[in-house]
Amino acid sequence: MRFGVARLRALLILAVAGCATIEAPVVEGEPGAPLPGLTDEQLLRFRQGRALFDRAFTPEEGLGPIFNQARCVSCHDLPESGGHGAEPVTKVSHYDPDTGCDPLTRLGGGLLQESVVPAMREAGLRAERTPVEANGVTLMFPPQLFGLGLVEAVAEERILSRSDPEDGDGDGISGRPGLDPDGRLARFGLRATHATLDSFVEEAIRVEMGLTTPEHPEEMLPNGEPLPPGIDAAPDPEVGDSEIALLSDYVRFLVPNRLVTPPDPVGEEIFRDIGCADCHTPTMTTAPNDNPALDRKRFRIYSDLLLHDMGRELADICTPGSVPGEWRTAPLVGLGLRNRFLHHGQALDLSLAMEMHGGEASAARDAFNRLSPARTQRLIAFLKSL
User: What pLDDT digit, counting tens, does each position of 263-306 carry?
Assistant: First the structure.
């Protein structure tokens, strides 16, 4: 009997020691659901923010006079509110290797607004068109917003630890951090242009919906041309800080969506073996946070959030902080919910998306091309599970 008790104690000690090495479960949920662990007040803000996200603004409330959509959800509705979108927008820029990137601000900026309010049409004014000065033009499909609050809660040191701008280790990968105009580490936006969700959301409602904000109380000008008097009678700013904060909290509290299907471990091993995971980091963990819902949470992301040179096939527009071929590593969670791939949607299947990878991803692309048909199928099945 004593031997049995002693053996049981030993097994319990081994079990506890083994559990200490097991990774924490990932945070995940149904698309569009809130993070687990939110307080009643945070859940209320989540619901209020979603109502604002789904609401259609009118010209009388400040929509336009040039805009793309009247509701946030019009760009982020698949498979649920806060998801990706099937309607692309048009981005433009001018790049000169000697002088750098010109976002064409004087000509209306880098995003075309392709709708106008009735008062604009009555005045004989049209939506924006691509400036002749633009030598970079591309479509961009809206990405999903699920899990961005956890992305915001990752420590800067965690992101910077993978930065290697001079390729010091000689592996051909030289990711570097994106910076916002104030020099802060940027992790949001397809080109890593925003440091915070507040900034990310503020720009979206301003440039996509034409709503002025306390930070930017001036109306956007169609292709830089002045607006006739009386076109927009809504007082500026048309959206206040409290509304921006509600929208930001809605996005902040969206849970990362769970996998579409259970992952194939063989496909995931191939993903790592050919080098995809060198940039598409599978998981991250948030830093200690006063909000328990964001505190030290592990989540799937499949991104390092750094800028990488992706080669000529993906070189189109630029930003003040990135040259045409540079893109932030696209998070792959949600890939299985899409039927068009890459920022411009030109890849209609995942094999073509891999083929269009170049630059720092050339070695991974070439390794993909060397896979047997059976192993290619396992890798594609894994990607579709995300």
Answer: 899 999 999 999 999 999 999 999 999 999 999 999 999 999 99
From the list 256, 214, 215, 209, the residue with the least C-alpha distance to 237 is 214
Whether 21 shows a pLDDT value over 90: the answer reads no
User: Tokens in use for 332?
Assistant: 């792959």
Rounded to the nearest angstrom, the gap between the alpha carbon of residue 80 and the centroid of all alpha carbons in its chain is 16
Length of the chain: 386
CA 195 to chain CA centroid, nearest Å: 12
DSSP 50-70: HHHHHPPP-GGGT--SEES-S
Residue 151 DSSP class: H
Q: Measured between alpha carbons, how far is residue 230 from residues 59, 61, 118, 227 in Å?
A: 12, 14, 12, 8
Evaluate whether 237 touches 126 at the Cβ level (below 8 Å).
no
Residue 24: the pLDDT is: 87
Beta bridge partners of 328: 307
Half-sphere exposure of 54 (CA within 13 A, CB side): 14
Distances (CA, A) of 57 to 46, 73, 211, 222: 19, 12, 9, 19
Residue 40 CA to residue 76 CA, distance in Å, equals 25
Residue 183 placed within a domain: yes
Q: Is residue 336 part of a domain?
A: yes
The sign of the torsion formed by the CA atoms of 213, 219, 222, 224 equals negative
How far apart CA 92 and CA 136 sit, in angstroms, is 5
The pTM is what?
A: 0.93
What is the domain extent for residue 345?
40-385
Number of domains composing the chain: 1
Task: Report the distance separating Cα 317 and Cα 193, nearest Å.
Answer: 14
Q: Six-digit token pair at 159? A: 């992101």
Q: Is residue 16, in this structure, part of any structural domain at all? A: no
Query: Is there a contact between 301 and 333 (Cβ–Cβ < 8 Å)?
Result: yes
Q: CB neighbours of 122 closer than 8 A, spacing ≥ 6?
A: none
User: 3-class DSSP state for residue 204?
Assistant: helix
Decide if 30 is inside a domain: no
Give first-to-last CA distance, the chain, whole Å: 50
